[in-house]
Each structure stands twice: as C-alpha cells, then as structure tokens.
Amino acid sequence: MPLFDENSNKTIVHGMKKWKNRHNRFVKISKLIPNYTPKQIASHWKNYLDPNLCLDALENEEKNFIVEWIQKHRTSSGVIHWKYVVNDLKLRFGKRHSENKVKNYWNSRRKTYLRKSKNEKQKQRKFKSQEQEEFSSEKHEFIFHFVTSEDFFLPKSPKAHSKISIASLLNYNNL
User: Fold this and answer.
1) Sign of the C-alpha dihedral, residues 125, 126, 127, 130?
2) What angle do CA 20, 25, 27 make, to 5 degrees?
3) Sign of the Cα pseudo-torsion (27, 29, 35, 41, in order)
4) Which DSSP string corresponds to the chain?
5) 167-170-172 Cα angle (round to 5)
6) 69, 83 in Cβ contact below 8 A?
7) Any residues with CB less than 8 A from the CB of 56 and at least 6 apart, and which?
8) Closest to 49 measured CA to CA, from 14, 86, 1
9) Nearest to 102 by CA among 133, 69, 131, 132
10) Would you give per-residue pLDDT tens digits along the chain (175 residues)?
11) What is the gyration radius of the CA atoms in the chain, in angstroms?
C-alpha cells in the first residue's frame, strides 16, 4: 500500500467534508485519487485523518480499561468487537482512539504475555530435567522387607479395629 502524501490527505479531508453523509463517500474520493482503493481511504480516514481522533498515546487507565473490557465482553469464540471497545473508551474517558491503536496495544500485550508464558514453561521444563538428572546421578539405597504369609494376619485384640500404619505392618514382630 503506497503511503498517503499531503495532497492525498487534503483531498480525503475535503471529500469527507463534502460527502460526509453519503454511504459511498470513499468511492467518490477514490475517483479523485485513483492510486488508492476506497477501503484504503476509509482505513486511513478512520485511523489517522478523522479530526475526532485522539492521537495521543493510550494512558495507563485506558489500557487497564481495554484489558477489563475484553475480559468481560469477548465472545466465547474469542471474537473482540473493536468498534464497541473504542466507543466505550470514548464514553468513559472522552477520547476517541482509533481501532488500530487499541488493537495494536492489545495484540502487543498479548504477545508479550505469551512470550513470558513460553519462557516460564521452558524454565520449568529445564528445572525438571535438571532435577531428574540430579536424582538419577545420586546413589539411592532401598531397603526391602520380606514379608511372609503369617505376617498378614493381625492379632485379635481391642486394637484390631484401629488404624494400622504401614510401618507397624512391616515391623509386625515389634508390636
């Protein structure tokens, strides 16, 4: 997509003033500047030229609002209706940010989170493998107690219905 020059920007602004209520305003403007499609002109208007846009960076409160809004209103299939996010931002803070600015913030935040999450998982895997290596390299001694069939019979006594630990079963002769 070729960049918009100053003359193209002036033509778009003039066309929007002239045909602001026409449904085909971007088609009409594209006939005046044929290097651009109506879709490109509409996108450029909505994201850069619209005089109602706030061109300042998002503030922390606005960023928090975006995150909370998306957590509450995202559809079950993960769809985010960006025009509603932008409208609610304007209602809450009195500034109209472009959909692109809001999307870019959300996507960069999400990618950062995913990258951190991936790094954390890699660290956990590395730590687990180190633990396994340390465990396998250590010498372990196991003591096996051989139990005969006579050892499975418990004495009949008042304690017969009480809980019996495994240790007491293994050391039956010491009871």
Assistant:
1) positive
2) 170
3) negative
4) -PPP-HHHHHHHHHHHHHSTT-TTHHHHHHHHSTTS-HHHHHHHIIIII-TTB--SPPPHHHHHHHHHHHHHH--TT----HHHHHHHHHHHHS-B--HHHHHHHHHHHHHHHHHHHHHHHHHHHHHHHHHHHHHHHS----------GGGGSPP-SGGGGS---HHHHHTGGG-
5) 100
6) no
7) 95
8) 14
9) 69
10) 468 999 999 999 999 999 999 999 999 999 999 999 999 999 999 999 999 999 999 999 999 999 999 999 988 888 999 999 999 999 999 999 999 999 999 999 988 888 877 777 777 777 776 666 665 556 656 565 555 555 555 555 555 555 556 666 666 555 4
11) 35
User: Any bridge partners for residue 119, and if so which?
Assistant: none
Phi, psi dihedrals of residue 96, rounded to the nearest 5°: -105, 110
27 Ramachandran zone, left/alpha/beta (phi>0; psi -120 to 50): alpha
Angle at 165 between CA 159 and CA 170, to 5 degrees: 105
How far apart CA 175 and CA 157 sit, in angstroms, is 12
